[in-house]
Amino acid sequence: MNKNDKQIKELLDLVTSQEDSIGKIKRRVLNTNGIFHYDEKDFFNINTVSEVKTIINALAFLIEKESSWYKACDKLGVEETFLWKGYSFHEWLGDLKARLDYIQWNNRKDTLSKTKKRLNSLVSSEGKTQMEIDEIKKLLCGK
User: Fold this and answer.
1) What is the mean pLDDT of residues 56-70?
2) Alpha carbon distance 91, 82 (integer Å)
3) Is residue 107 a part of any domain in this protein?
4) Range of the domain at 92
5) CA distances from 48 to 43, 52, 85 (A)
6) CB 96, CB 51: distance < 8 Å
């Protein structure tokens, strides 16, 4: 293996280590029905949203609604729990946070996958052969 192949091998080992550290994302059961409505015509499915800004906008909307709700309750001298479309603020928050965690995990996984692909394309033929021999040794020796 040449000098570049050794550096690439070290970087590939680092990528593999990071892939192992992020693990697999746990599937989460939603607290809500998963459909976030601003109104009857403007809504999105939490399970399919891929833009972080969409999640931020929904949470900002809920924060404003909850704040206004409790201010109105205070002015009227009543105690009522805030619900949006039948679910509490914390139920929505949990679902939105869970989706954000998934988006961030998925973005990291994609970045690592692309990096690994780029690094593998840089390995020389001799380096690829050596790396394959090393993998076979691991299989046979159980290491």
Assistant:
1) 98
2) 11
3) yes
4) 35-113
5) 12, 12, 19
6) no
